[in-house]
Amino acid sequence: MAILDILHYPDERLHLKASKVENFDANLSKIIDDMFETMYDSNGIGLAAIQVDIQKRIVVMDLSKKDYPMEKILLINPQIIEKNGTTEYEEGCLSVPGVYEKITRYETVTIEYQDISGNILTRECDELLSICVQHELDHLDGKVFVDYLSPLKQNFIKKKMKKLDRDR
Question: What angle is formed at CA 56 by the lines to CA 53 and CA 58, rounded to 5 degrees?
């Protein structure tokens, strides 16, 4: 069982906007550790704090494959500062289990973010990392990948998720 409870679409809390992290302290470290453990336990590759009902601009990711060592990626107060090209990718989400849809994203993005000590860093992202970064940053701004779909598909997915919640 995951340490933190993951909110499921269409929970309204998924549409809240995250606030900037101001305190780089032991509490932040605990939140980050719990988020990584929750993500790994749920077999995810990314998790935004909003998804676990923490309204802070924190993202954890690990895109490593099953047979590769962990590559923990932590983004605090991330923002996209440059974006180029477009690509389409079939995305899924821990907050929308069992649903996969093709979404158009930027092909590459450059992000600025802070590390656990508050240092400001930049990173160029491409391929799956670019997709994942954009997906998770959307969460921080109150957007779920389902929001990119047609109203008809959104409605279908809402009904499916409500039924899943009732059956749990």
Answer: 100
What are the CB-based long-range contacts (under 8 Å, 24+) for 49-53?
Answer: 49/18, 49/140, 50/7, 50/13, 50/14, 50/16, 50/18, 50/139, 50/140, 50/142, 51/6, 51/7, 51/14, 51/94, 51/95, 51/139, 52/4, 52/5, 52/6, 52/7, 53/4, 53/5, 53/7, 53/13
- Which residue is it, tokens 């959104």? 154
Domains of the chain, earliest start first: 12-167 (3.90.45.10)
Is 136 known to be catalytic? yes
Pick 29 or 66 by higher pLDDT.
Answer: 29
What is residue 147's predicted lDDT score, i.e. its pLDDT? Answer: 97
DSSP codes, 6-19: PP-TT-GGGGSPPB
The answer, as to whether pTM is greater than 0.70, is: yes
Among residues 106, 99, 98, the alpha carbon closest in space to that of 146 is found at 99
pLDDT(46) > 70: yes
Pick the catalytic residue from 71, 88, 90, 136.
136
